[in-house]
């Protein structure tokens, strides 16, 4: 059986399947220098990607199957140069990540976390009704990144009668208003939802200018990658009251989250849990292992990243 190196944790179902077809090694538990030359298959995830040490210790690597759709932690140019096929898990998580974006937005408009704390602390009984909150219906919402997940966010938002506009580098065939300048989009909307890939091309796309354009009543939701938002500027904007609210699933230095954010009542934080349900992780896990098995059986894969299509 071919040697498979696993980076990060996987579900028991994934483990049972790979152990059936591969000689499995766990990154961090094996001597990479000894086992590396035998490794032809790698299973990793979007957060851990393909560390340089693995790249150089595994000269015979043929395929990297990533348990996630975003692959900014994998140097695809280096992989293509070495003929290594990279796969990922598009589409199967669209609905879940879209729900996560809406959940953050709804929690902020309706003060879900604050009101829950109000009840638990007995304040309803002692102080009476909690202060009124703000409706999530009929809002002007901007989506940064109108790809697979962005489109699902827009679809789900229609239930809330949202007026949707979006920005990406090129317009898409969607029934929403395209704005070719991110600053203008931020100025026009009440909520900006980020759902682009991470990496150099989107690094700090949302900085001081964009945050200030959103303004004191504006809300930023980030379910993309921490690197898309300038986190220091975000903290300052919230502290100064130049930005109203933030709902964040992703951070620049995960799992570290700035203490300042943890203290703010107008911020909701999640531990990069956008796709983290049993059902969606099962679908992602299945596709991750399907790609490995397909490659083993046929030399082809189901969902290569676009950069690697030419290798197949
Ligand atoms: P996708 O289908 O490739 O869509 C990406 C969108 O971003 C496209 O509309 C693209 O349009 C746009 N974009 C790319 N670079 C841009 C730039 N520099 N400026 C403006 N727009 C840009 O990807 P997807 O499947 O929707 O996934 C998007 C990302 O979500 C993933 O890469 C990952 O980082 C993140 N994600 C997060 C979680 C989570 O747990 N929080 C889960 C899944 C995915 P153009 O190419 O025309 O610009
Ligand atoms: C995963 C994600 O949590 O798919 C992505 O891009 O960010 C999430 O679904 C991540 O890949 C870590 O496994």
Major sheet characteristics: 7 strands, parallel
Number of strands: 12
CATH class of the largest domain: Alpha Beta
Strand order of the largest sheet: 8-7-6-9-10-11-12
The low-pLDDT segments are none
CATH superfamily of the largest domain: NAD(P)-binding Rossmann-like Domain
| SSE succession | EHEHEHEHEHHHEHEEHEHEHEHEH
Q: How would you characterize this protein structure?
A:
The protein is of the alpha/beta class. It has 2 domains: 3-90 and 278-311, Rossmann fold, CATH 3.40.50.720; 94-269, NAD(P)-binding Rossmann-like Domain (Rossmann fold). It is 37% helix and 16% strand. The chain is built from 13 helices and 12 strands. The strands form 2 sheets. A 7-stranded parallel beta sheet has the order 8-7-6-9-10-11-12, with helices on both faces. A 5-stranded parallel beta sheet has the order 2-1-3-4-5, with helices on both faces. Helix 12 links the parallel strand 11 and strand 12. The mean pLDDT is 98. Residues 69-70, 90, 93, 97, 145-150, 167-170, 195-198, 201-202, 205, 223-225, 249-250, 272, 274-275 line the site of NADP nicotinamide-adenine-dinucleotide phosphate (NAP).
List the defining traits of the structure above.
binds 2-keto-D-gluconic acid; Rossmann fold; 7-stranded parallel β-sheet; binds NADP nicotinamide-adenine-dinucleotide phosphate; 5-stranded parallel β-sheet; single chain; alpha/beta; 312 residues; 16% strand; 2 domains
How are the SSEs placed, and which strands pair?
Elements: E1 3-6, H1 12-21, E2 23-26, H2 32-35, E3 39-45, H3 52-57, E4 63-67, H4 76-82, E5 85-87, H5 94-109, H6 112-120, H7 123-127, E6 140-144, H8 148-157, E7 163-167, E8 177-178, H9 182-188, E9 191-194, H10 208-214, E10 219-222, H11 231-240, E11 245-248, H12 259-262, E12 267-269, H13 278-298
Parallel strand pairs: 1-2, 1-3, 3-4, 4-5, 6-7, 6-9, 7-8, 9-10, 10-11, 11-12
Helix pairs in contact: 1-13, 5-8, 9-10
The structure holds NADP nicotinamide-adenine-dinucleotide phosphate and 2-keto-D-gluconic acid.
């Amino acid at each position: 059986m071919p040697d498979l190196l696993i980076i990060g944790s996987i579900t028991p179902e994934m483990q049972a399947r790979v152990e059936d077809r591969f000689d499995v090694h766990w990154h961090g538990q094996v001597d990479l220098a000894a086992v590396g030359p035998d490794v032809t298959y790698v299973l990793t995830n979007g957060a851990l990607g393909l560390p340089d040490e693995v790249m150089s210790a595994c000269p015979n690597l043929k395929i990297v199957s990533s348990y996630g759709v975003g692959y900014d932690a994998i140097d695809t140019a280096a992989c293509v140069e070495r003929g290594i096929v990279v796969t990922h898990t598009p589409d199967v998580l669209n609905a879940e990540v879209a729900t996560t974006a809406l959940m953050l937005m709804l929690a902020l408009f309706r003060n879900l976390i604050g009101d829950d704390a109000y009840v638990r602390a007995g304040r309803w009984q002692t102080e009476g009704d909690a202060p009124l909150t703000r409706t999530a219906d009929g809002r002007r919402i901007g989506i940064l990144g109108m790809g697979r997940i962005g489109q699902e966010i827009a679809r789900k938002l229609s239930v809330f009668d949202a007026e949707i506009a979006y920005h990406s580098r090129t317009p898409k065939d969607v029934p929403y208003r395209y704005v070719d300048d991110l600053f203008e989009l931020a100025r026009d909307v009440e909520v900006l939802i980020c759902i682009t890939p991470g990496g150099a091309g989107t690094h700090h796309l949302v900085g001081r200018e964009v945050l200030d354009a959103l303004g004191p009543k504006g809300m930023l939701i980030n379910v993309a990658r921490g690197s898309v938002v300038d986190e220091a500027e975000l903290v300052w904007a919230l502290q100064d009251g130049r930005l109203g609210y933030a709902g964040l699933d992703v951070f620049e230095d995960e799992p570290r989250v700035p203490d300042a954010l943890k203290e703010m009542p107008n911020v909701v934080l999640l531990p990069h849990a956008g796709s983290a349900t049993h059902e969606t992780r099962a679908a992602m896990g299945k596709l991750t292992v399907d790609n490995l098995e397909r490659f083993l059986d046929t030399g082809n894969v189901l969902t290569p990243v676009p950069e690697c299509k030419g290798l197949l």
